[in-house]
């Protein structure tokens, strides 16, 4: 048999290490029971990662975790409400208890409510802000404290194109997502020294339970006016970009927001 050259031997060793690193990622996905979060959790489960999915509903988090385990990896569920001021410690604490640390946090969960500025109430405003902005901030803080000790970590925030180009009648949602984009940049600056990269995705319309009522029954013409690619996105098409942002393929990126919208904002 031919002896492998030194170069081949080195490359092979690196491949094994990469595979092992890939398999050992400990990832939290908030809102991992439906839509984009579930697609992310499934993507990581298929890669053999250790995944903690969180949602407000304990039974759903447990059921989805059990379903996702059949794709491989280790998947657990935890019930936590992003509007709860203790959410960060609860979710990150559970991840550390289960997996001994955290490599990546995907701040995905969010709520989408139509509220025009003139009709907005303090209650509407607070519920959107607490879930879409304060929750991710507190969860990032708790995760960063653990990641800082380990000397590395990745955080990905799921914002929206509404945070970049606001639409009428979504005052609180637009502001919460613009805030999340800003939080991404602040976190990136503060945490770069600790080896923690923080990036953001601004999806366009993606086929999920949240978006379905808004997109069902739209004519092809309306869809084409909305997205030059003439279709809405699939949750998996966000999951692959999340994977890119937590992988070493994006090693020199931090503080960035990537638009994934089939060309919707390209026209602006
Ligand atoms: P879905 O409504 O389909 O799923 C939302 C997930 O988040 C569910 O698992 C839900 O579980 C969980 N969740 C909701 N509220 C909370 C909360 N307070 N605490 C913890 N978990 C919660 O949403 P999508 O997958 O469509 O959206 C995911 C993210 O992507 C959101 O941040 C959204 O704003 C963003 N986005 C989506 C777009 C789209 O077109 N779909 C476009 C742009 C951005 P449960 O209800 O059981 O708690």
UniProtKB/TrEMBL annotation:
Q: Of which family is this protein a member?
A: Belongs to the short-chain dehydrogenases/reductases (SDR) family.
Q: Which GO terms describe its molecular function?
A: oxidoreductase activity
Q: Which residues form the Ketoreductase domain?
A: 25-195
Parent-record interval covered: 68 to 335 of 338
Transmembrane ranges, per UniProt, are none
Q: Return the protein name.
A: SDR family oxidoreductase
The UniProt keyword set, sorted, is: Oxidoreductase
Superkingdom classification of source? Bacteria
């Amino acid at each position: 048999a031919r002896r492998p050259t030194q170069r081949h031997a080195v490359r092979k060793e690196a491949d094994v290490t990469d595979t092992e690193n890939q398999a050992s990622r400990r990832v939290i996905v908030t809102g991992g029971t439906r839509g984009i979060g579930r697609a992310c959790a499934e993507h990581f489960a298929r890669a053999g990662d250790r995944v903690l999915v969180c949602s407000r509903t304990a039974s759903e988090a447990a059921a989805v975790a059990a379903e996702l385990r059949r794709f491989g990896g280790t998947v657990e569920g935890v019930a936590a409400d992003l509007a709860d001021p203790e959410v960060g410690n609860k979710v990150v604490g559970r991840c550390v208890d289960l997996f001994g640390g955290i490599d990546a946090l995907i701040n995905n969960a969010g709520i989408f409510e139509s509220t025009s500025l003139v009709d907005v109430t303090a209650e509407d405003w607070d519920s959107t802000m607490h879930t879409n902005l304060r929750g991710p901030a507190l969860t990032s803080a708790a995760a960063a404290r653990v990641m800082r000790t380990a000397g590395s970590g990745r955080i990905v925030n799921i914002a929206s194109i509404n945070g970049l180009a606001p639409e009428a009648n979504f005052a609180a949602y637009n502001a919460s997502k613009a805030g999340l984009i800003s939080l991404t940049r602040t976190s990136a600056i503060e945490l770069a020294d600790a080896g923690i990269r923080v990036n953001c995705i601004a999806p366009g319309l993606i086929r999920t339970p949240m978006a379905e009522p808004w997109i069902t029954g739209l004519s092809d013409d309306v869809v084409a006016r909305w997205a030059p690619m003439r279709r809405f996105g699939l949750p998996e098409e966000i999951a692959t970009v999340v994977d890119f942002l937590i992988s070493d393929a994006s090693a020199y990126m931090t503080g960035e927001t990537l638009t994934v919208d089939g060309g919707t904002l390209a026209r602006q």
